[in-house]
Amino acid sequence: MKNGSTFLKELISDCNGTSIPITIFSSDQILKAANNFDPSTFVSCQRFFAWHKGVIQDRCYLIKRFKEEYLLNDNESMVYNDIVISARVSNHNNLLKLLGCCLEFPLPVLVFEYAEHGAMDEQGGVCSDNRQQQLPWSVRLKITKEVANAVTYLHTAFPRIILHREIKPTNVFLDKSCLIFHYQYLSLKVSHGLKIG
Known about the structure:
By secondary structure, the chain is an alpha+beta fold. The protein has one domain: Transferase(Phosphotransferase), domain 1 (Orthogonal Bundle), CATH 1.10.510. Helix content is about 30%, strand content about 25%. It has helices at about 1-15, 25-35, 70, 75-90, 135-155; strands spanning about 25, 40-45, 50-55, 60-65, 100, 110-115, 120, 125-130, 130-135, 160-165, 170-175, 180, 190. A 6-stranded mixed sheet has the order 1-5-6-4-3-2, with helices on both faces. A 3-stranded antiparallel sheet has the order 7-11-12. The radius of gyration is 17 Å and the shape is globular. The protein starts with a helix and ends in a 7-residue tail after the last strand. The model is unreliable at about 185-195 (pLDDT under 50).
């Protein structure tokens, strides 16, 4: 109940009366989708969360699960901010689309669209079948342009600028078209008092 009320408070304060529809998943759906977060579902890991591949009703999803030690650092509000910002920017082609969340865990679990090629690695390649594959320059250039497009959107599309403070290859997912999907809103900062236009 606490997770739900905190989430709603953040969402209502951010959306100014506009509707941001996301699906609320049950913990049973999430656990079944990610096979109880079995290591075989692991996609990528960051400092405070891990990405898992999940399947719900024959459709693949990326499931973002925050590590419970994140609670120890009193960062819980940042998790809810992550949901709100992810929902707000989900309509942009170069940003990973938030489809829903589950509020039944100690920290919310987020459900995003699936990116078939997974996350990039530190060297700017992708891992395929447990082997590293370098991307051609034309694809790298396309990714660079799409990251720039996404960052421009974050800086200009909203009354308060959204600053991403951790742009790096491992924060980039690639779908089947090699379009870029940029994530990790925990490191975003919303600048208050700055007006656009």
